[in-house]
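Please study the protein below:
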Amino acid sequence: PARKVIPDAEIEVRDPAASYVSRSALKLIAGLDHADIGVAGCHALDVGASTGGFTQVLLERGAAYVIALDVGTDQLAGELRADPRVTVMEGVNARDLKAGDIPYAPDLIATDVSFISLRLVLPPVLKLAADGARGVFLFKPQFEVGRDAIGKGGIVRSDADVEGALAAVLAEIGDVGWRIDAVCDAPIAGGDGNRERLIAASAST
């Protein structure tokens, strides 16, 4: 709550993301907590790892191993790159992944991809998962709707367009044999201000 302070009072602003290599960490934390997904001991796959916000959270929560995969190169934070639990796969397009390309069948998959739709990324990735695997996927509406639906500053103009795109992604996840467990709002907006969602799902057994 707001309150008055003396002019020379020391004011400390606490940033919950300060200890992470990327603010995206807060998004994965929200998705894991909302769907009550345990991480301890898991063999995880982080698709769209970038600087490693998601990878860092997975390690912090006890993942045994994490594959940090990204189509880009030289982005992952040095502290994560040096961690023996992390397998770095750079310059790899997730759409091209096949069995044998990664060292294990992941039992937890997290995705944070840009400039491509989840409808293109998830089908090949989810097929590589272990039986009973779970996943948390960041839905970014600006990369899911058509170009005509995006207005000034990259903001999606219509809530209806966002909901339609979300429904299409959820249907795609179902088509590859996964069950939708939960959908929640991301705790912070995307870099361009769009409201993002987190989709939690699990492989049908």
